[in-house]
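In pairs, describe these two lines:
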Amino acid sequence: MSAASVTVRVPAKVNVQLGVGAARPDGFHDLANVFLAVGLYDEVTVAPADELRVTCSGPDAAQVPLDATNLAARAALALAERYGRDPAVHLHIAKDIPVAGGMAGGSADGAAALVACDALWGTHASREELLEICAELGSDVPFSLVGGAALGVGRGERLTVLETGGTFHWVFAMAERGLSTPAVFREFDRLAAGRDIPEPVASADLLEALAKGDPQALAAAVSNDLQPAALSLFPELADTLEAGRGAGALAALVSGSGPTTAFLTRDAETAEKVAATLRTSGTCRVVRRAAGPVAGATVV
């Protein structure tokens, strides 16, 4: 007998390395994408309903699409189609991951909805099947399922789990407006025009820093090839980055396609100091602290 409802908690991600190759013929880019799951969470609750519908609460909920373009809805439809189920469920998303913030909030909701519907319907999909559906939904969705730390190649959807030797403390500054991921990639292509773009590869120094749990070494190795494009479209982010560096962050970078900015700190005490400075800097809307790695999509 199916449960009355199932709730899944799913984390945000930060890209500690985002290496981007030249545009492929299909319009995508090959990536070397080193993900770290951090403790900012959405929760997706799924319950039987007369028809598929999506609701959302929490910060910036008004910006979340509630139609069939929502990745949570698409996940439910994909699993239902594969197993011959009626996708008549109510999906409620309790948002805490920034919307359009470069932290994979939409992808997280897709992974959470997939796990929740699998549990509600008792379809018992294998991990491989769930990852296959995740990859069909979007490049960041598989990592939201897996969590921890991982290297994503191809479009970022082919994952290798990475060893981490400790906890890394982060501060995240949410910007006053969002940035469209496709627009940032288009700007990357524009800025790259006429240049030879090398194949992206994971940094050996960065992987070693993760494995050792060494924030100082990780700070020296973090990189984001999309950062120049994000700054080109949203120049004010440079002020946020500078404020965080000045407050003692070991590293400051745009998270993924932005516009959220991420600050790696030495420890929890330094993270609080950086967060306090950013909150009064006038350069951002909201400031949050989080540590990682944490687990991926999990039934609660």
